[in-house]
Batch of 2 targets.
Target 1
Amino acid sequence: MRPLDIGLVVVLLFLAAAISSASTKTGRSYYTQERLAFMHQNLEKYEWARNTKSAILSAADRWLEYPDDELRIMVPPPELARAIYVHETGCPEHGLAIRKFGTYAWKLSLEHPFKVQCPVGGEFYPDNDFEAYYRSGIVDGRFDADTADKSLLQGNIVDDGWATVTRRSSGSSGTTCTGCWPARWCPAS
Ligand SMILES: [Zn+2]
């Protein structure tokens, strides 16, 4: 057997072991019974633990208000490659000034789902109503780009789910990833 073939066999064996291990899970693995018991003890003993529990439940209450269908579309399908990475060309308006806020500098909030906000100037991207476009393409719970209403892709900086494309004042074109699927999950900083 050639070395390449041996390597392939080894990889397949590891994959088989991993799949087998995952499929044989029979109980809790993170919040074990012991860990849960420890939490209950802390709740009985400590005020901080009770306050933490109240804060978690209070934050969770918001999600109970969403219908199941709404929760489902909050997780975009693989057909929409959402991301919040700031492209090498930076913000369409402020360029690389956004970099001083980090690589993932766009601000996210539940008040503006499917939008991102520049931390430098406070403007929002993209111009188009991406959420309306996304909803227009949902068929049987899945997004179909062929069905989506292309008339909703209007504006200077438009996002069809695969990032925005804009032309900077310098004349060079740049692509700025402003996908914002985590906006529903990560409160604005
Ligand atoms: Zn900006």
Note: The chain has two domains: 31-65, 72-184.
Target 2
Amino acid sequence: MKRNQTYCLQCGLPLVGRADKKYCDDGCRNSYHNARMMDANKICRPYHRSLKQNYGVLAEHFNSGQDLVSKDELLMQGFNPKYATGMDLLEDGTMCYGLYDLEYFEQSGRFIKIRKADIPPPVIWGH
Ligand SMILES: [Zn+2]
């Protein structure tokens, strides 16, 4: 029985050989993966930049011993609350956001409390 003709995912030429082949050769495979990685980089880069910017702002306060900062000050320093690396609900119902190895949550009077992250992985992921 003749199997359906398949085509290289990169250059579109008909493929010969193994049925599970996806590319003509390593060159086409690499080009394909590089192109996809470039797309991914293009999409991810602005998010990474914002996360690093946020982390830089928080870490500067935290590392200088200041773990309570006003929201407005953070915003003025370029902190963008849209970007975080994680979130978790604290026992009192406060939402706590993660930024790499730091976490922060709102306290009364528009203040943000910063501390070292110590969040166990969410239960649904099991152990
Ligand atoms: Zn090819």
Note: The helical segments are 26-63, 71-76.
